Amino acid sequence: MMLNREELRALCLKDPDAVIAIIEQLEARIVDLESRFNRNSHNSNNPPSSDRFRKTKSLRKTGIRHTGGQEGHKGTTLVQTEKPDAIQNHKPDSCEHCGANLHGVTTSSIEKRQVFGVIIKRHVVEHRSHQKECPHCHKLTRGQFPDQVTQPVQYDQSVISAAACFHNFGFVPYDPLSKMFRDILKIPISPATMINGDIRIAASLGSHDKAVRELLSQSPVIHCDETGFRVNADNQWLHVTSTEWLTLYQTHRSRGSAAIRDMGILPDYRGVAVHDCYTSYYQFSACDHALCIAHLMRELNGVLENTGHVWAQEMLDLLETIYDRIEDAKPCSHSLDLWTTGTFEQEFMRICEDGLAGIPPPVPIPGSLRRGRKRQSAEKNLLDRLIRRKRDILRCMYDFNVPFTNNQAERDLRMMKVRQKRSGGFRTHDGATMFCKIRGYISTAMKNGVSPFIAIQDALKGSPFIPQAPAMAE
Questions:
Q1: CB 270 within 8 Å of CB 472
Q2: Which of 40, 82, 95, 445 is the most exposed place for a label (fewest CB within 10 A)?
């Protein structure tokens, strides 16, 4: 309800309490608007791409880890190979001290240095079918070409595999990729040929897709998440279900339960599904749920920055303490002991109750035409969620197989954002589906130590990489 200056002056004289209520509501609205403006990737669920050009506060604490490789990290460096591709000898012609001729003098020692390089060149193999006349029957017989050689001129599978790897793993669009092959390799390959290669690869992945779905359904813990992307100038959603060893993508027009049901994993899943508390996941009750604590910590950071309320800092400290205690106990246990979990639960609820006590109720405006339930603040919504989902938030205390965060799914989704920045959206739904199918295949292969190029070559041969259950048992 908007009041002009005269109406506001009259209301002050008639009902001062009404004016106070209006001021309180306006103050609450200012806090809400300022909190929206201050949202970034470190204090909310906004993606990093939405951050403005200003420094954001990280969840990481300084001084815990030193810069560079951490203890136990296996470094990589160049080492000399025993079989170099070429050898260049550098022999002195004369003595650098007295100038004597050294031709014919036997070498006393050799110092070896190796330079690693790359030779990029086209490799053409000509197949010749010889015809011979039999000296006995005088009939002609021709040599047989290999089964894969069917045309006078054609591309080898390595060309199609390389193009598919550059596009689906390196996110290079078809047109620039075609020019790169033409200018660097002297191979004139059209975008249409590369698209047909991707169609062949996607069509060969039926057995791989079936195996991934079966293994995901049997996994004790899976990660779920979704992100938006553009298809034919329309907003659609990419859904992922993954583990440390498996990745399954699916495109859908819906973000909610219809898409999750069509993916076919959660409806009958009996393990623990880790996600970010999106309501649609809770429609599938056959499994247990675990919430990403990193998401909650970002929201707590937002409350702390916008309101300064002490309870948010206390909850952040508690969650960090729980994480440290879990990491300390992992080498010798599968869960925290009952006394420790009970203590943490009590502290968790105490902080939530203190937070609720410090939040003023929504202020109604006298005479307002707005009906229905008053809108709660983001802080109140967060506290309600913490209380309602306490067991799912703290599930990592009771089972160390459940991770502290949903970073696995977020890492698996990040590739779509990188691809979108480099190549834009997809022109067709079929193209998006094909890309996600191939990309999920590449991701699963890489998680199991298989090169993307080798995996794509195997798919073109009709024998795609099939993940095995023992790889998940570590």
A1: no
A2: 82
In a domain, 393, yes or no: yes
Report yes or no on 336 lying in a domain.
yes
Q: How far apart are CA 158 and CA 64, in angstroms?
A: 47
Would you say residue 205 lies in a domain? no
Domain that holds residue 326: 293-360+375-405
φ/ψ of residue 111, rounded to 5: -105, 130
In terms of Cα–Cα distance, which of 295, 304, 273 is closest to 392?
273
Q: Is residue 330 part of a domain?
A: yes
* Contact assessment for residue 311 and residue 354, using Cβ atoms and an 8 Å cutoff: yes
Range 165-185 burial, b when 16+ CB lie within 10 A, else e: bbbbbebbebeebbeebeeee
E strand or H helix at 349: helix 338-357
CA-closest candidate to residue 19, choices 34, 1, 36: 1
The model's pLDDT over 256-274, given as tens digits with 9 standing for 90+, comes to 999 999 999 999 999 999 9
Tens-place pLDDT, residues 63-119: 566 666 677 777 778 899 999 999 999 999 999 999 899 888 899 899 999 999 888
- Residue 116's φ and ψ, nearest 5 degrees, are -90, 130
User: Which letter, b or e, does each residue of 328-362 get, where b requires 16 or more Cβ atoms within 10 Å of its Cβ?
Assistant: ebeeeeebbeeeebeebeebbeebbeebeeeeeee
* Element housing 140 (H / E): strand 140-142
- Beta strands across the sheet bearing 234-242: 247-252, 234-242, 221-231, 272-275, 288-291
Question: Cα 396 to the chain's mean position, in Å?
Answer: 21
Measured distance CA(212)–CA(177) in Å, rounded: 30
Most distant pair of Cα atoms in the chain: their distance = 126
- CA atoms within 13 Å, Cβ hemisphere of 401: 13
Domain count across the chain? 1
> How far is CA 18 from each of CA 1, 160, 369, rounded to the nearest angstrom?
12, 74, 14
pTM of the model: 0.79
- What is the three-class DSSP state of 281? helix
Q: Are 406 and 210 in contact (CB under 8 A)?
A: no
Sole residue written with tokens 């329309």: 234
The identity of residue 255, as a single letter, is R
Nearest by Cα to 201 from 238, 164, 174, 173: 164
